[in-house]
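Changelog-adjacent note: as of this version, every example in the card shows the full chain rather than a window. The one below runs 180 residues end to end.
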Amino acid sequence: MAICSDLLTQSIEENCENNVGGLKRVLIADFESVTETTHSTDDDIIDAITMASTTQFFSFYYAKNSGMFEENLVQNLEVGSTYFEQKVAFTIPKRDETRRLSIKELTSGQKKLIVIVEDANGNYWMFFDDEGGIVTTLTGGSGGAKDTMNGYAVEITADSVYQARLVDETIVDALLVPAT
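Full-length structure tokens:
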């Protein structure tokens, strides 16, 4: 019988370290701005990201405890496909002209985006680097009471044939300045 997938090569051990949910940072760039990513074949961690000249990732501030990502496996046994539905979501508090213009840029012409998130455990994950993600949900407004949200809720989604990859943390800060 043929084996049509990767052979198991390791176990998952119990982890005694602290593990928490949530995000610390959300970094977004135009999909076309990233010209190449390289990763070690041994550990599949992205260790270099090449940006087009003058482009960069931008940091998006979001409300505390509102940033999250999700990956869901989808397998269609009839056609033999396997992929992951990916989503990065966050809420931007306060509606003003600066935030409105940034939202306009995110959603302009069904723009394709690439996203790096830092999770609450200090790991950086790259999403949508194979085909680009699109803002598929944007809600904005103000609640009726003083203690309700006034801002925007953003969801960026895409389907990918592989899970989000880890990004070497030592390369992240350089992505926040325009490439030369």
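Structural remarks: The chain has a mean pLDDT of 91.
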